[in-house]
Amino acid sequence: MRTDTPQTIYRKDYTPPSYWVDTVEMGFDLDPAITRVATRLTMTRNRDSRNKSLVLCGEALELVQLRMNGKPLTKRAYTLHDGTLEIFNAPDKVTLEIETLTHPDRNTSLMGLYVSNGNFFTQCEAEGFRKITYFPDRPDVMAKYTVMLRADKKKYPVLLSNGNLIEEGDLGDGRHYAVWEDPFKKPSYLFALVAGQLVCQEEKYTLQSGREVLLQVWVEEGNLDKTQHAMDSLKNSIRWDEERFGLELDLDRFMIVAVGDFNMGAMENKGLNIFNTKYVLANPRIATDADYAGIESVVGHEYFHNWTGNRVTCRDWFQLSLKEGLTVFRDQEFSADMIGTDSGRAVKRIEDVRVLRQAQFPEDAGPMAHPVRPDSYVEINNFYTVTIYEKGSEVVRMYQTLLGRDGFRKGMDLYFQRHDGQAVECDDFRAAMADANDRDLTQFELWYSQAGTPRVTVDTHYDPVGRKYELTLSQSCPPTPGEDRKLPFHIPVKVGLLNSHGSDMPLHLEGHAQAGTTMVLELTKEKQTFVFTDVPEQPVPSILRDFSAPVILEIDYTDVELAFLMANDSDPFNRWEAGQRLAMRRMLELTRDVQDGHVLADDDGDEPVLTESFRAMLDATALDSAFREFALTLPSETVIAEQMDMVDPQAIHTVRRFLRRSLASALRIDWLVAYQSNRTPGTYSPDAASAGKRGLKNLALSYMIELDDIEAHVLAQTQYDNANNMTDRLVALTALVNSNAPGKVAALDTFYNEFENEALVIDKWFMLQATARTTDVKAVRKLMKHSAFTLKNPNRARSLLFGFCNGNPSQFHAVDGSGYAFWAEQVIALNAINPQVAARLARSLDRWRKYAPVLQGKMRAALKQVADTKGLSKDVLEVVTKSLAN
Predict the structure, then answer these.
(1) b/e for 355-381, b at 16 or more Cβ within 10 A?
(2) 94 and which of 24, 43, 276, 582 could share a cystine (Cβ 3.0–4.6 Å)?
(3) Domain Peptidase M1 alanyl aminopeptidase Ig-like fold: where (predicted)?
(4) How far apart are CA 408 and CA 390, in angstroms?
(5) ∠26-27-30 over CA atoms, to 5°?
(6) How far apart are alpha carbons 166 and 845 in whole angstroms?
(7) pLDDT at position 614, please?
(8) Which of 125, 302, 324, 394 is catalytic?
(9) How far apart are CA 45 and CA 35, in angstroms?
(10) What residue spans in the chain does CATH classification 1.25.50.10 cover?
(11) Distance CA 856, CA 838 (A)
(12) What are the pLDDT digits (tens) for 230-273?
């Protein structure tokens, strides 16, 4: 922990390292209490560096010995200060031998080398390697690694590290060893080791080139029956990357290891990917449809990093989106392609945009707003954000929208041709895209350097005599911390025009050849007018098809036009979007009524346009069930809050529940028909079609339970009792818990007793209760006393604390401020255990200025309480100080 003012790191201050590392040899004597690490580095002075000293990073280490070029170094030759080891007057060529001690069983931060359930694991991104040995721990220092692991053979029979296994054997004293060699240069953040009691599922896999590779999924004993989906996802990922981008697995083996204690979802360490169990373990008994989809996505993401992140990596951490934004785009495209249908791709696109709007748009409008390529940070772990990942992915997607799929592939090919084996910048990726397609993308750089969500306003004019239709697009972007004035972005706006029959019109843009029925307009100025000719009637515009840019679209549709688009638009995204706009408009009206003191009555639920649009969607059985589920889901309370100048969580919650009850009552028969007709009898399968049917069926159940009558209770209880998969069972349990059904307490107890040995399911059990409508702070405190709860496990902490603080806004934002006092208490407690997880929880109050005055004072007091805590980590301190300042 640090008590001094943490240093701010600036991108403009980047300087190359004083020394390059050529090779790294490491020997580990693994013991939970004291692990001894011997490291030999061969290093060469960087002639471009202005720093003459050799500087290494280290944290929480005991330095036992330090030798340079075969001679011990006296303390006069180096200094240890504030996490750095500086050696003076080092020669141009250096062989440095370092011996350190570390204490894995005390490492609750889960960064560096740590112990989980008796096994050893590592997490080195972003700056965890310095907790293992002294090293120039930065991504632009790339070297080849050879690693020897030594440990008690009985306790730790499995010894894994990056690359290829080249030797193993017994040491004759009850211990054994394994030597691993990674043939590719890599930065230290990609180093990994695993040791312990593990078993694996393995398969031989033949690449398109004919080369055979070994694929392994390592888990703890008893979990082998939950690895097949992860293995299948890995094979699909390998095949997809070969077919879509011509990229082949470059090692002889590829390993996935699952661990229950992990700060993130997974980590792409070269050839040895370490995963949170949440994204590996699945079978119908414990995993939902969402879990299966999440595993496929994350396995793909980490595998795709082998090229976009490992073979080509970041020059510095400011370029994080170079690998993460690009790889999120790749995993999104992979998941969409795995579904294999146009409607399936559309559902995946909607799902990704919902995440963007619910999490990234608020971030872009808050005190932690930062560009896709930040200009500064205090703690880099705080910048593994939805802006870096999801918005970064949207920036990459815009390249494909502007250049076309073939043009994007050409840019990717040139990127690898130029930069394989290098640590580069976001500008290098942009240059490859521009040069491969002979395009000027200079203005596009602003997507990397400017924070905030642009707003695109649409004005239209139709000239029936001249048969011309003018589409005027204007862009603006509100100020963000440190950025008052924004320059115009380069925004691709995909458009179509619908005639009165709901069909797409052929597009004739003045000065351009006919472009079919959808075209991309390039908005590069603050205001531009695009003129379409030969337009026979007043059209209904379909703007920002496929969500072609991460912007807020402002267009003045009537309710009738929105209903028309919801029923007819050929673009599935905009068809969904029309329904969301229609519902949002009504909910905002009702929220204002509630704030004005109006008590909602049954006649307020008379929603002819919205109700009939929902009825038509329920009856549109030709449409994909998954799409209909998304179209019939109301905007979340978080998304509604973003549309308000002053957030009133209680009013929002009241209105959303009221509207759901109104739709449940008006469409009761239709919901029941949808429920019955989307059953999936027989053996469970997580395929997209079956998952879509379950999704629509379970959405219908969630609406019907709003009526809270005997029929709905029986339906939910029957589904719970008879479910043959976790998806149906968990939805039914959720319905019971959020009702007055007499069997809900018994169902909660039964569920826990059946799954008490399945950690991932018990996480769901805690999350379900944390987000229940009636769960207040007292209930959460009671759940924290449950024998299955621990703050030390990130998954368990996220399921209960994050579930309540981020997923139950009406209860968390209780007017008495009890939620905020609880939040402060838990952030401080987590800070002492795991600063990275604590900082994530700290983000729950970073938008405090957007709330009603009665809440603001209590939120500020809670933030101040955390900020004034002694021994606060820089992770948490950065979040709370920025929240208070902006």
Answers:
(1) ebbbbbbbbbbbbbbbbbbbeebbbbb
(2) 43
(3) 452-555
(4) 19
(5) 130
(6) 51
(7) 96
(8) 302
(9) 30
(10) 572-704+774-885
(11) 21
(12) 999 999 999 999 999 999 999 999 999 999 999 999 999 999 99
pLDDT average, residue stretch 775-803? 98
Second CATH level (architecture) for the domain 1-197: Sandwich (2.60)
Query: How far, rounded to the nearest angstrom, does the alpha carbon of residue 854 sit from its chain's CA centroid?
Result: 33
What is the value of pTM for the model shown? Answer: 0.98
pLDDT value of position 606 = 67
Of 424, 194, 162, 163, which Cα lies nearest the Cα of 313? 424
Q: What are the tens digits of pLDDT across the range 29-68?
A: 999 999 999 999 999 999 988 777 999 999 999 999 999 9
- φ, ψ at 283 (rounded to 5°): -150, 170
| pLDDT at residue 4 tops 90 | no
Indicate if 510 belongs to the active site.
Answer: no
Specify whether the CB–CB gap between 297 and 305 falls below 8 A. Answer: no
> What residue spans in the chain does CATH classification 2.60.40.1840 cover?
455-484+491-555
Give the pairing of strands 491-498 and 468-476: unpaired
What CATH architecture is 572-704+774-885? Alpha Horseshoe (1.25)
pLDDT at 176: 98
Amino acid code (one letter) for 543: I
Contact between residue 815 and residue 830 where contact means Cβ atoms under 8 Å apart: no
Neighbours of 79 (CB within 10 A): 13
The pLDDT of residue 1 is above 80 = no
Other C-beta atoms closer than 10 Å to the C-beta of 555 total 15
> Taking Cα atoms as reference points, which of 825, 742, 693, 724 lies closest to residue 344?
693
User: What mean pLDDT do residues 849-873 have?
Assistant: 97
Give, in order, the Cα–Cα distances in Å from 489 to each of 109, 325, 492, 549, 609: 40, 18, 10, 10, 36
> Using an 8 Å Cβ cutoff, are 751 and 793 in contact?
no
Task: Check pLDDT > 90 for residue 392.
Answer: yes
